[in-house]
Amino acid sequence: YSHLFDGPFLSQILEPTATWTHEWASTMLFEAMLRETPEIPIKSGSQDAAFIQCLIEGEWADPRMKTEKRFLFDIVSNSRNSIDVDKIDYIQRDCRCMNVPYISFNTQFLIKEMRVYDDEICYPEKYSMEVSKLFKSRYNLHHDCYNHKTIHAYELMVVDVLLECHGVLYDFTKDIYDAEKYLMLDDSIIDEVQYSEDPRLEKAREIIERMQFRQHYRCVGEKGLNRVTAERAWTDITAEAICSFADPDENGEDLLPSEVAVKKYTINHGLKRDHPLNNVKFFDKKGHKKESYPL
Fold first, then answer.
1. CA dihedral sign, ordered 72, 81, 223, 149
2. Helices (H), 142-268
3. Per-residue pLDDT tens for 64-104?
4. What pLDDT shows up at residue 92?
5. DSSP characters for 224-237?
């Protein structure tokens, strides 16, 4: 539940000024591993350790990295055009696990034929379609799988379970900053709640039972908006606003905001408004052009 935990859940319990990210959490775990494993030649606090942490976070502008090559920071977390090993890995993994035919790009072509020009990873122009297919694969996964209404329903239910656990089993606002405690915050929380007899977790257990019997939250409406309309209406579409339009039920009771969940999301190719393909550089493999260039 990593992205569910990082986004929909933590956004409800952390202060708006909190800067915690899952990349930062990865560097925290990396530092803890170095401290607890002295046989690793890289030492905590060293320049090598700082370099690896900056690779994870994609922080090529870090003052400590002035002597490092810029293109190295595009391998793990690429803020330039979003093509990195993380994206290639999860696209292939999720397509295999969900048995969906979205791996249309040739990973080996891209990795084998990439070159570095002007301190930037570039690709042969003849493989530009493979790069485009990678972005399309990501788009299809988000459109058809990650943002499917049933997926959203179960995500909302897991978030409600975690909210019930907060302050009972764990203090998530503190534990996410402690490497040892953070390691315990995995999928086993669901089992821990299910077998707990704590009366404070009764609601959480009921939600888990509903999940097991596929009695998930029901989607009562879905609407796609263009960018202009969405930006104008984004903050106006709330549970309270929806309830104001709902008629009372047969018992005369009004629909309550606590009974409504509004899920807002956008789908893009990886760089929000900008298509990442615009930021990818290519080169002429036959050598007719001696520099890299965008398409």
1. negative
2. 149-165, 172-175, 179-182, 188-194, 202-212, 227-233, 239-243
3. 888 889 999 999 999 899 999 999 999 999 999 999 988 88
4. 93
5. ---HHHHHHHTTT-
Output the six-digit token pair for 140: 């299809």
List all residues 6 or more positions away from 147 whose beta carbon is below 8 Å from its beta carbon.
265, 267
Question: What is the spatial order of strands in the sheet that 115-117 belongs to?
Answer: 115-117, 120-124, 281-283
DSSP strand pairing (120-124 vs 281-283): parallel
C-alpha to C-alpha distance for 244 and 60, rounded to whole angstroms: 49
The candidate with the shortest Cα–Cα distance to 28, out of 5, 57, 59, 48, is 57
> pLDDT below 70 — which residues of the chain?
288, 290
Residues in the chain: 295
Q: 42-51: long-range contacts at Cβ-Cβ below 8 A with a sequence spacing of 24 or more?
A: none
**pLDDT tens-digit readout, 151-166:** 999 999 999 999 999 9
Report the DSSP beta bridge partners of residue 136.
none
Instruction: Specify the amino acid at residue 16.
Output: P
Give the dihedral of Cα atoms 215, 238, 155, 222; nearest 10 deg.
70
- Contact between 113 and 124 under an 8 Å Cβ cutoff? The reply is yes
- State what percent of residues in the chain have pLDDT above 70: 99
| Number of Cα atoms under 13 Å in the Cβ half of residue 61 | 3
Q: How far apart are CA 80 and CA 195, in angstroms?
A: 46
Q: Which residue type sits at 211?
A: M
